[in-house]
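Protocol step 4 of 6: structure prediction from sequence.
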Amino acid sequence: MPDQAAEQVMDLRIEGLDAEGVGLASRGADRVRIPGALPGERVEAIPARRHRHRVEGRLLRVLEPAPERVAAPCPHYGECGGCSLQHLDYPAQLAFKRRRVKEALARAGVTVDVPSVIGMEEPWGYRNKVDLSFGHDPSRGVRLGFHRRGRWHEVVPAAGCLIAPPELLAAVRAVEGWALAHGLDAYDPRTHTGFLRTLLLREGRATGQRMVALVTAGAEALPGAGALREAVARVVPGLRSLLWVVNEAPSDALKVDRVQVLWGEEAIEEELGGLRYPVAVESFFQTNTLQARRLLATVLELAKAAPTDGVLDLFCGVGTFALALSPRVRNVVGIEWVEEAVQSARRLAEAAGFSNARFLAGPVRLLLPEAAAGLGGVDLVLLDPPRSGAGGKVMRKIGRAAPRRVVYVSCNPQTLGEDLVHLLPFGYRVNQVRALDLFPHTPHVETVVRLERTGR
């Protein structure tokens, strides 16, 4: 009787990569996705899932490797859910990301030169924020790590992670030891039982300040709080903030119901563009400080701000771009949905003496027309929307506001292209593009596009 497993083995030639960096091949009428495979390679794989003519495959072995293939250095590569491009050498990663941007713009009908992606000289240890989950290890009890690929309720050990700084990862062993010593168990999101949920680690690269935040289910008191303070302070240099965060929500997403400072301050600080930004547990801040500096410099270069400009900064967060532009322009108004971020931006503007900067809290699509009218003329619109994009309504309202220049900062080339389709009919032309790698060894790429109004 023939071996069914052997019959399922597919011998495939990889034709390209999709937007997630997954290898693509054809087999009859089927389109096959093979994680870990590279263009030009001949591989053996087996089907894992099928949906109509789309097959999700599992790589068995590489028969003919591509010249760009390298040995992934991380001991958890393939198990951990992150860093899925470690098997592709870094220059080839940058070339792949450039193609992603070019293809997304081409689908929007934009033909423009896309220079080489601005990469990192050292693409390891770059993250200033690490989120770890507690899980149960049958051999030793509680363990901290990253979600296992395809099995979100299991964790892969954090030790050996190459994109996290070792000064932050030093907290992992200390917290695990404290949890084991006090008999504490991991929270299970399937049954909503257990106590220890996540460990959030943050650092200010420019300031050297570090935060360790323990997130748990609800409790009146934290067992062994003094022992935790002692254990963490002993191994984490520059510790400024040790927090106990209570999250009583059933889901895995971070929801802060209560914060107790166990040691130091409630926030750390990071420096960017000459300003110091407070970074709390829930604060959004770019996770790659070095590339965030380059991103800010790129935005300022493409904005070409003038002293007479009225500027709208949409999806402004804590005001990073608006505050950097403030000394260079007549007036700037930032709009952001998250109230806490707006309050932070207002405090920073006041501390810096930027009286020409205002920040509004609410939906961009609702506040944009009023903010534009209040400026007495919009010369420049800057927007940095989430991965889902700004959306057609916002883009059309930008078109109706008729700024002379638009600078769009995107973390998703696909939604960037979709958004541009709504703006181009208002007489805009893309004339400059820059792409930056803020997340080496992943398929993600940051894109900055400058548009000018040439008429309608």
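Step 5 (inspection) to follow. Residues 1-6 have pLDDT under 50 and may be disordered.
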